[in-house]
Amino acid sequence: MLKIGIDKLGFYAPHLYLDMTKLAASRNVDPDKYTIGIGQDKMAVAPITQDAVTLAANAALEILDDRDKEAIDFVIFGTETGVDSSKSAGVYVHELLGLNPYARAIEVKQACYGATAGIQMAKGHIAMNPDSKVLVLGSDIARYGLNTSGEATQGAGAVALLISADPSIMTLEDQSVYFTSDIMDFWRPVYSDKAFADGKLSNEQYMAFFSKVWEQYKAKTGMELSDFAAICYHLPYTKMGYKALKTILGEGSEDVQERLSANYKMSTTYNRNVGNIYTGSLYLSLLSLMEQAEDLAAGSRIGMFSYGSGAVGEFFTGILQPNYQQHLHVDQHARLFASRIEVTVPEYEAIFEETLPTDGTTIELDIDHDPANICLAGVTDDKRQYVNKLN
Ligand code: CAA
């Protein structure tokens, strides 16, 4: 039986962040509400020189070698922060990374579920073409608006997953349960650059979807809580996943509860310091778990709950591969976090308000202050101008 799964996993967040306690002070909110009630310490802030395309391309840059670039024949870009209603963000990334031209490149949208849809599509593609590799991207900038209740759950960043046969990090198991229902918990009309959310309904639906797919998964597979070393969640904020985990912890022994709670904490470290990155959030949590947990053995089964408002939910699983740790980039990610620059609340507000012209006006952006290798350098003739500083 062909094993298919995650061969490499890359991550990128912009170089600026806002301290949540400073945001709380400025909004006259008790800082504990943000750091404990919501569970966020820092929020990544994207400068105007980073968009969904550049964040994803920077995430992919850290993992791909020349052999991968030749073998990738499918780029699937999951995002809800697309930069064009027609051309896919995948085509831009394909060019920026210099991938094999004999490839497909598309964009997939269903709120935060897009990258999961991409991974499932990639599995089918690899099953038919075992020698090929698929690059799945999840990249977003979460914007609710200044002084909104969603403000504390913003963020920006991207993940890049290389999906292949005989993967080095994790094989994806075939059994999975998915569920769709038309609800208006969170959405972004095409005329708005900020998301609309019914916060209370979105929390309720997240929990309801988790319960539905978890119960159905157990009924379908005969698995139980003790079969899992950890469960990773889509994390709009880190308290959300914990609320869902708490509803099922009682199904396990004390040991199982301890293990899952401890690993949950590890799976939220990165997200707690980045914020919501929508499509990439679940995979950032998986990365955080693998890079932060000290005794997560190869062979461990990890559960994953993906949720995209609107809404589609899915529960699926993976098995960690022998020596998976050797294929992670722990030091690189430690450097990424350590080198970030803090912005003040007024600076964050100014960056938030600085948006690209929507009337076709030419704009040139200063990319010298953005340390990222791949940046948006401006817009000319209604065309975004991307630069890979390494070329
Ligand atoms: N100390 C400790 N905790 C405190 C506190 C304090 N001083 N003050 C408040 N809290 C706690 C509250 O008790 C509450 O905890 P519980 O949820 O466990 O009861 C928590 O802090 C949040 O408080 P509120 O419910 O009052 O917060 P809020 O209404 O201002 O906003 C929110 C919270 C609804 C999540 C809002 O930020 C929002 O709308 N975010 C965007 C939507 C979202 O992220 N939804 C999540 C599910 S949808 C999804 O997953 C898809 C996606 O990515 C968007």
Automatic annotation (TrEMBL):
Q: Which UniProt keywords apply?
A: Transferase
The record's active-site residues are 80, 112, 234
Give the GO terms filed under biological process for this record: acetyl-CoA metabolic process
What are the GO MF terms of this UniProt record? hydroxymethylglutaryl-CoA synthase activity
Q: Where is the Hydroxymethylglutaryl-coenzyme A synthase C-terminal domain?
A: 260-353
Q: Which domain of life is it from?
A: Bacteria
Q: Where, by residue number, does (3S)-3-hydroxy-3-methylglutaryl-CoA bind?
A: 30, 144, 243, 276
Which residues are in the Hydroxymethylglutaryl-coenzyme A synthase N-terminal domain?
A: 4-166
- Protein family: Belongs to the thiolase-like superfamily. HMG-CoA synthase family.
Question: What is this protein identified as?
Answer: Hydroxymethylglutaryl-CoA synthase
